[in-house]
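Researcher: I'd like a structural prediction for the single chain below. Treat it as a standalone chain; there are no partners to consider.
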Amino acid sequence: MMSWLPVLISILLFIPACQTSEEEIIQVLNRREEAFRKRDFSLYLSSISKEYRDRDEDFDRLQSRIGGYFKDFDRIEYVSWDRSIHIERGTAEVVQQFHLEVEKAGERNRYSGKEALFLKKEGRKWKIVKGL
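Model: Treating it as a single chain, here is the predicted structure.
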């Protein structure tokens, strides 16, 4: 029985650590959602890593593209749900459903679907590194 005690203690210590990381990731995703709602570009960028890379887009190109959205649209509404988070050694993959609605000069466009976001722990903070 005593030989299992260190294993049990390790497992019990590991579970709260995963939950903490998951909660931190959820905070990043919620901050991104809030940034859309408030049209707060600085808040949005606080969720994105300077190491962001996806296809042929790096952080600077992403910043320019998303900055244009914040500037051009009168209203941006974004909600996400049905989220799954997989964490492994300082990286995480989030798959979630989303609905995005934008409005410019009274004209609305709606987009819905599933997105996969990839995050990396940078120091003590989780940041999105791919998938936007």
